[in-house]
Amino acid sequence: MTKFLTALTAAAVSVACLSTAFAEPGPGKGHEGMDRQPPMPAFEDLDTNGDGMLSTDELTAARAERVQTLDADGDGKLSADELAQAEIDRATKMAERHAQMMVERMDADGDGLLSAAELATPPARPSDRMLDRLDANDDGSISQDEFDAARDGMRDRHPPQHDGKRGDHPGGKPPQERQAD
C-alpha cells in the first residue's frame, strides 16, 4: 500500500509540474489570457498504455516529448531563447484570437474589418448582453425558469470557496457590509 501511495504522490507531483511545461492557453482568470494557468494535459494523452494509471515512465515520456517539441536546435535541452520563443508563440496565438473576437464583436457591416466608426461605437450595455445570454427562448424577456437555470449554471461554474462563503474577505463579506453588522 505504501508503494502505491508513493507512486500516486509522485504521479500527482509530476502531473502538476507538467502542467506548467505545457504552455497552451486555457481557461483561467484575468483579462484576455492574462494570469491564466496553462491547462493540464488530458489524462488520456498521458496514459499512453491505456491502463487507467499514470506511471513514472509515461510522465517522463510526456516531459521528453514536450522538450523535443520546444527544442529548436535539437540539442535535447531548452535554452532561455527557446523557452522565450514558446512564450512568444503562445502570446501571439492569444493576441490573434483576441483580435478575431474583437472583429467579430465590433464589425457592424460584416466586411471583416474595423473602421474608425466601428471602433468608436460603444460596446453593448452589459444589461443587453445579459438579456441575450439568459433569454433562452428569444422572447425578449427573462422568465423565472431562465433566471433559475442561469443562476444554477453560475453556481456550477463558480462553487463557493472558503467554507462556503463567497469572496476573499474575512467572514465572506466585503468591508462595507461588515461595518453594517
UniProtKB/TrEMBL annotation:
Residues 126-136, 148-181 have a biased composition (Basic and acidic residues). Keywords: Metal-binding, Repeat, Signal. SUPFAM superfamilies: EF-hand (SSF47473). GO terms for molecular function: calcium ion binding. Residues 42-69 form the EF-hand domain. Residues 1-23 form the signal peptide. Residues 120-181 are annotated as: Disordered. PROSITE patterns: EF_HAND_1 (PS00018), EF_HAND_2 (PS50222), PROKAR_LIPOPROTEIN (PS51257). PANTHER family: 45 KDA CALCIUM-BINDING PROTEIN, RETICULOCALBIN. This is Calcium-binding protein. It comes from Falsirhodobacter algicola.
